[in-house]
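note to self: the first set is below, dont mix up w the second
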Amino acid sequence: MVLLRTENLHKVYNNGNKPLHVLKGIDLVIEEGSIVAIVGPSGSGKTTLLNLLGGLDKPTEGYVFLRDLDLYSLSDRELSQIRNKTFGFVFQFYHLLAEFNVLENVLLPALVDGFNNLNQLKKKAQDLLARVGLKGKENNFPSQLSGGELQKVAICRSLINGPKVLFCDEPTGNLDAVSRDEVIALLKELNLKEKMTVVLVTHNEKLTYIADKVVYLKDGILN
């Protein structure tokens, strides 16, 4: 079943007097429960495409559909709810809040969503952290963790609201080989055991090996 699809997707940025046409008519289909890797050189538009799929930016032209729902026909509030409840995001640079400990960072998306059973929420966050090998580090701060541990916290944070789709932008880009392999295994496990749809942007050919579908983006065009 098709979960996400784009039709004639364009993105143009106004760069002074010269428009920058980053995406040039992208048609992409993402099946529910699949892993899709978007591969391409720097500047090809990979992150821009990921942001449009995830409702983080607005297209200049074209459509993004979540099943039959046109994402960009929604109000900002409605789109924000989908980003928080249906989508999860993992970035290369983690984006954890330094002043909050590990448990608090994981809890943040659910607290923003107005979750009213804090004890149940904490138990879920602790279970997620234990699952990725971070049991006992709930009270540590980001500055006390390795790069691999930081990315695992970021993944737990992305999962706290039970998303249908996990968007990953270079999720292993800052990791050593051991941590990279652990994150790759975790993404595959989420896909296999929980049927989570994973869309990832990567330069890492090893990450493409776990993908059901690999698309190549160059100069704003899919190949």
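second set (the one i keep forgetting abt)
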Amino acid sequence: MRQQWAAKNARGGWIQDLNERLKIEANAMDVVERYFGENGYRVDRRDHENVGYDMLATSAAAELLLEVKGNKGEAVCVELTPNEFSCAKKKSSTFRLCVVVNALDKKRLRRLRIFKPGKNGTEWTDESGIRIRTLEKTGAVVRE
């Protein structure tokens, strides 16, 4: 299989506007829930349970842990919390990173990309063979 890597210089940015961030998140959740529902899965939201993923998708053949992220633009550049990243590494065979690009655009322009993690969590591959890499960071926020 030919390796194809996503653009290295794709940069995401923190969206300051809370309403815009919430709209992106809501749109992304709707797209993913609809996609898996239309493909024979029962989808249960778990985003408020702190389990390391947002949705549990179950079918007769599979159970998938779905982490949902939305982007304003085309680039796939998202951040995983330590809990999400840990879950991806521990449950790599069933974990899926679902990224909705153009999440604020009209429904027909939104696009869902689904990535499966490699065993060590440093490389992810989508259904077309495109690979993206993980840059693991440790950081802190210090405030008064």
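remember for set 2: Residues 18-38 form the longest helix (21 residues).
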